[in-house]
């Protein structure tokens, strides 16, 4: 098994568990959607995976490497985990190419250039490398954020409601594009959303979260009905 998460717990307030015994396994290349209403614990889960919060209990492993357990805690930048945020979080003063190159610090210049070109082709933004974020549409900015997250070949990418700022028509298109990118590149991803249509269009498997606990797990067609 590629990723295993066991009995993950987290409290902001000692009397109230934002996450309560979350366990699951994820296969390499699998795209999992975490689906749940506001307040169900989705962002907290991603923040724990990314290393932005310290769990009060639980184990997280990628292959045989312990990312955290009772005794150890790997720092965020050492986890090999990429993130795509709701608001894209692109650097406004950097070009598209510079944004994508940001996570490739340890590469040689020539390799870096080649990798940036390669991932921009994957997200179909090959022509846009010299533009600045404000010169792009919302959907294009989102694809730059995806390119930046996948450029360092992460073990896992985390996506936190990445489509919520896009209009409805664009959401339909970018859902398909994102699924194609993830599956073609064999990227393991955890995608957090409150929108069933996102989960249906993108996930291999859906985990429904309710009050910090897993409510149900299944394939999109089984969990949300045939579409
Ligand atoms: P979601 O992403 O599904 O909306 P969150 O993970 O943001 O859910 O929140 C889970 C629970 O933790 C909610 O009850 C929320 O009010 C609480 N919570 C989230 N962030 C904080 C925080 N910084 N301080 C205190 N409570 C928080
Ligand atoms: P989303 O559901 O879009 O993930 P939220 O609206 O739940 O975001 O939270 C936005 C921000 O507010 C997050 O940084 C979260 O940690 C914080 N937050 C959420 N709930 C609470 C809370 N009850 N008390 C303090 N901070 C909170």
UniProtKB/TrEMBL annotation:
E.C. code: 7.6.2.9
Name of one Pfam family that matches: ABC_tran
UniProt keyword annotation of tRNA processing present: no
ABC transporter domain mapped to chain residues: 3-227
Keywords (A to Z) from UniProt: ATP-binding, Cell membrane, Ion transport, Iron, Iron transport, Membrane, Nucleotide-binding, Transport
This protein's GO CC annotations: membrane
GO molecular function: ABC-type ferric iron transporter activity; ABC-type quaternary ammonium compound transporting activity; ATP binding; ATP hydrolysis activity
Signal peptide: none
Catalytic activity: a quaternary ammonium(out) + ATP + H2O = a quaternary ammonium(in) + ADP + phosphate + H(+)
Domain of life: Bacteria
Enzyme class per UniProt: translocase
Keyword Transport annotated: yes
Description of how the protein assembles with itself and partners: The complex is composed of two ATP-binding proteins (OpuCA), two transmembrane proteins (OpuCB and OpuCD) and a solute-binding protein (OpuCC).
Name of protein: Carnitine transport ATP-binding protein OpuCA
